[in-house]
From TrEMBL:
Top-level taxon: Bacteria
Pfam families reported for this sequence: BPD_transp_2 (PF02653)
NCBIfam families in UniProt: GguB
Protein name: Xylose transport system permease protein XylH
Function of the protein: Part of the binding-protein-dependent transport system for D-xylose. Probably responsible for the translocation of the substrate across the membrane.
Cellular localisation: Cell membrane
Primary location: membrane
Keywords: Cell inner membrane, Cell membrane, Membrane, Sugar transport, Transmembrane, Transmembrane helix, Transport
Species, as recorded: Kineococcus mangrovi
Residues passing through the membrane, by range: 36-56, 68-87, 113-130, 137-161, 192-210, 222-246, 252-270, 300-321, 358-376
Membrane topology: Multi-pass membrane protein
Amino acid sequence: MSGSTLTKDSKPAPAPKTGSANPFVAITQNLRESGIYIAFVVVVVLFAILTDGLSLSPGNITNIVLQYSYVLVLAIGMLIVIVAGHIDLSVGSVVALTGAVSAQLVIGSNQPWWVGVIAALGVGLLVGAWQGFWVAVVGIPAFIVTLAGMLLFRGLTFFVLNNVSLSPFPAQYGKIATGFSNGLIGGNGYDAFTLLIAVLAVVAFAVTQVRTRIAKIRYQQVVDAMPLFVLKIVVVAAVVMAFAWQLANSRGLPYVLVILAVLILTYSMVMKSSVFGRQVYAIGGNLAAAQLSGVNVRRVNFWIFVNMGFLAAVAGVIFSSRSNGAQPSAGNSFELDAIAAAFIGGAAVTGGVGKIQGAMIGGLLVGVISNGMQLYNVDQSLQSVIKGLVLLLAVAFDVFNKRRSGVR
């Protein structure tokens, strides 16, 4: 009898599990993941009302992308650090140091702009290797190592710049953070190329979601109900196209957004599909179990900090490009913005939980709140209070979810 024939004692394979047919119920069942997206939409709508639509104008949306791109780059690396159960307090100083090295070469020594970029990235990798050695090999807690690094690299920044600012960068360097792709394929009053890229991104997202759903069904895993699945794709497509339309009606596609998109896609795949990504989650989730499973914890921790140094250098290049120079005080509090983005985006304080897209939404949420309060002329001191409360509530929400699910 063939393996596909059922006997009277045999039972058909169980149907794949699906979420509730009611989208609202499904969302509430996954509040940990969906809450940040709901909060983001609420904040966007709130400031759109308070500012009479000014916060959603093409020019303002473009400015948000340009102003907070370096925070999002830092948030990618910080999310990985936090998932592994560490913290990095030095990234703001590394941003300043890498920007200073680049400025000293390009402005001070008249080197080509790309030499400054390569040197900055090289310094970032060296900084990451330095801190990774002390954390992974010597065994000093990351909090202490990076606290020392915050002071050390800030001092090196003053030394490299000789306590003075350097500016301006050549035009080619400035285009890294302030340049735009506009008019490549025309458009009647808008940049059609920006819309084309957005359409391709939506199609890629939809195809990825469908393939992931098919794979989960094949392995009898839980999937969202079809109405919620379709709704998710439609909402994402609508948001992306609305965002692209605003960019297309402003100055076109920012180069820095292309850099950020490449980083998001790359690191999302690394954390989701690679051995390294799974090992990072394993270390943060249960260090003892990861060690017993054969994970080389020292090696993974070392490369986590090398990667953080690299991304801090990328942020340093972007920030110095946007600032059109390097200052000894650059990067102050950047580490706090990156940490806030990761935690607000759903990263767990104890490690083992967090996604790249969540950190990006968390960073954008902080950016939208800051931008909206500036447009609404909120006092600077009150802005800090509100951002502090947002971070506190995000972490409290994480703790509440753990207690509700019985996790200690």
